[in-house]
Amino acid sequence: MSIANFIRLHDVESLIREKWEAKAPFSLVRVGDGELSVLKFPHDVDDTRIQHVFRRAMSDRAYTDEEISAVRSGMTEAVDSADIVGMYDSYEPNELCLVHEEHLEQAELQPMTACHPSVHIFLQSSGALDRLLRVAQRVTLVTGRDILDEFKRTYPHLKVNQHLIPVERQYRLSDNGENQEQHYPDVYNRIKNELRPEGRCHLYLVGAGILGKEYCSIIKGRGGFAIDIGSVFDYWADVPTREGKQAIKDGKAVLAGESRWPGIFLGSAPAQGALERTPHRGMFRPLEIIAKP
């Protein structure tokens, strides 16, 4: 038995659309290197590495074993309950794949549906996310980037609200008015109580680091439709965090550097035929993306 039914990125939109049209609760989460460390994959990951992940993602302090265990438990539930998990496949294997396969075989369970972890970039670059937003009615943003006004201007037909959370510490700029509260546990506990979907097809777009996986699980459990879009929020806010370097510009801290995905902006969609279909499970190549107005 394979640990996961890996689908191509081009098939992800079809599955999302199927769940949406059925008005089914839904969750898509992504598992990267930081999440793997929290989940203790590989098994020999040491406490120093886990503390580093927590400090980088949240506040610069020591985290107790109880706090780490609680976050790990929530993340485990999020992966187990997700409809689609963005994770590395057999072309880019990791121990999570091997251990999950063993557990599935023992429990005689069906494998999860999985795809490449860059699914959030694909959904935005392919126009799939924009197409979903065009048919949605109610959207809630869970993000550290205050883009509410711009989002409303881009999608005026939507009823939109926003849960503003602290930006991940490694991408935080202390002088730009970002939320400086501690994400864990204060904001975390508050947000969990505030995630209240208003009926089926209440779409939540989540960009909340390692805690965002659990938020997606909670949203689905309460009947909502959650998609972990992570750093897409940063691109929408014109802060290309995955390529940028902190620098000083006009007396203020900024993230400088050219974006690897210059065509990603709020409301962007690819030019006709811009994405080349590929036989590979995860990779895609943006050929031409419309320029930002």
Shape: globular
User: Helical element count?
Assistant: 11
Mean pLDDT: 80
* Low-confidence segments: 90-94, 271-293
Placed side by side, the strands forming the largest sheet appear as: 1-4-3-2-8-7-5-6
Domain module tally = 1
**Main β-sheet, in a few words?**
8 strands, parallel
Instruction: Give me the Rg, rounded.
Output: 19 Å
| Topology as a string of helices (H) and strands (E) | EHEHHHEHEHHEHEHEHEHEEEE
* Count of strand segments: 12
Q: Give the structural class.
A: alpha/beta
What proportion of the residues form beta strands (DSSP E)? Answer: 15-25%
Task: Please give the share of residues in helix.
Answer: 25-40%
Distance between the termini: 49 Å
Task: Summarize this structure briefly.
This protein is 38% helix and 17% strand.
Describe this structure in words.
The protein is built from 11 helices and 12 strands. It has 293 residues and is an alpha/beta fold. It has one domain (4-269). An 8-stranded parallel beta sheet has the order 1-4-3-2-8-7-5-6, with helices on both faces. Strand 9 (245-249) and strand 10 (252-256) form a beta hairpin. 39% of the residues are buried. InterPro entries: GT-D-like. It comes from Arthrobacter gengyunqii. It holds the Pfam family GT-D-like.
